[in-house]
Amino acid sequence: MIKAVLFDMDGVLYDSMPGHVQAWHDIMSGVGVESSKDEYYLYEGRTGHSTINLLFNRTFGRDATPEEIKALYAKKTQRFVELEYPESKPMPGALEVLGKVKALGLQRIIVTGSGQQSLFEKIETHYPGFFDKNLMITAYDVKYGKPHPEPYLMGLKKGNLQPEEAIVVENAPLGVESGRAAGIYTVAVNTGPLPDKILWEAGANAVYPSLHALAEHIEELIVSLRKL
Ligand code: MG
């Protein structure tokens, strides 16, 4: 019996991935790390710490020091805020999906690796009445980050849910892996530049090209899962 939908935020509720990608690219270029913009879509969901170490190892053959990690992640967050605010862009179709999910009587929980201070206020501005501040997992709550199942397991725990009582909506391959590793039916919406194949290979149970497409199919999806 499906009781809840666990929503990832960047690339699902917000069209914010271009901002994150640009911010990462700018900050890492600044310390001599060469990277392609598309590769950051593959890293989406990792902790900042693990993304920085991956790039440092490739470029300099060593982990970053804790001081470097702290400074770079702070700069990246700052750069993202500069690029993103004041006009955060809600993802087209997300409101439609949320309306249907609410009408079906399902709980809405956010599970994100992001951690800006004013996150809930922003969400409440664009999606008023759809979310509960106490039903959110953010960067401040997790230790491992995606693709570890931890963030989605914490989401289940907050909602007092079993894995078979929820579905996950994700856009990122590592997020899909995390949802599946937590034992949850995971829907991918491909809102970025990566081929669908990468989302299927990450274990997605279904792949939709957009939130609009998911909105069109979500009622039948929930009904069919309720019959299982
Ligand atoms: Mg995402």
Give the topology, please.
Elements: E1 4-7, H1 17-30, H2 39-43, H3 48-60, H4 66-84, H5 94-103, E2 107-111, H6 119-126, E3 136-137, H7 150-158, E4 166-170, H8 173-181, E5 185-189, H9 196-201, E6 206-208, H10 211-226
Parallel strand pairs: 1-2, 1-4, 2-3, 4-5, 5-6
Magnesium ion (MG) binds at residues 8, 10-12, 44, 171-172, 175.
The Rg value, from CA coordinates, equals 17 Å
Coarse structural class: alpha/beta
The CATH class designation of the largest domain is: Alpha Beta
Q: What order do the helices and strands follow?
A: EHHHHHEHEHEHEHEH
Q: What assembly state would you assign to the polypeptide chains in this entry? A: single chain
Per CATH, the superfamily of the largest domain is HAD superfamily/HAD-like
Please give the order of strands in the largest beta sheet: 3-2-1-4-5-6
Low-confidence stretches: none
State the CATH architecture of the largest domain. Answer: 3-Layer(aba) Sandwich
What is the residue-averaged pLDDT?
94
Bound compounds? magnesium ion
Summarize the main sheet: 6 strands, parallel
Number of E strands: 6
In the CATH hierarchy, the third-tier topology of the largest domain is known as Rossmann fold
Q: How large is the count of helical segments?
A: 10
Q: Kindly give the count of domains.
A: 2
**Approximately how much helix is present in the residues?**
40-55%
The amount of beta strand, in percent, is 5-15%
What is the CA-CA span between the terminal residues? 8 Å
The gross shape turns out to be globular
